Amino acid sequence: MADELVHREVASPNWNERALPISMVVLHYTEMQPVTAALERLCDPAAEVSAHYLITEEGEVIRLVAEEKRAWHAGQSYWRGHRDVNSASIGIELDHPGHALGYRPFSNAQIDALLPLLGQIVQQYDIPRANVVAHSDVAPARKTDPGELFPWHRLAECRLCLPRPQKLELGDPFDNDGAFFLALERFGYDITNGRKAVEAFQRRWRPELIDGEVDGEIRAILFQLLLDRDRGRTR
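The chain above was modelled as a monomer; its predicted structure follows.
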């Protein structure tokens, strides 16, 4: 990674060797304040957690773990067949109070710093847009970060993640919820806890209403995402 995007380095001891090539980026929030507390935890051997980068609300980019190493950010997780998400991904933590400490919009300075960093990572490792995901996408039963206020649209405008489908060509195509869950699993989610998987999907793709209920709108959104993928439009 080009050092001009990194303001400083604080080496975390919490890493090991990768078992898979890099094919994903997972975005998190710290849910800790102040940022120094999050930084200390990410570098504490006893905590056994880390990430490759931490971006402060003021837009400072801090590198904690070298990209070629396996940071410990995703925990027990799953995405599109990968159960060792840590081995396949780069983890970026966003300094933020999270849902526990006063959930609020992400700062413009933070997102302005994230975009070029993410852009270089995506380009360097040829990461598909569909594999730039939220922690809640890969661990729906446990996590809600970075949450419904994260500005995915800004990333999508830069072609750094998939956009929310605007045109739902075929409406609601699923005959029953079982068909929806099979399609959700096909898209990439762990559906072991069905309600939490639906909440995660809603948080990412229909954040204005997160209730864990399968309805016609999210069925139509999921079908459009799969349709676009099958047509080769959404790499």
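The mean pLDDT is 95.
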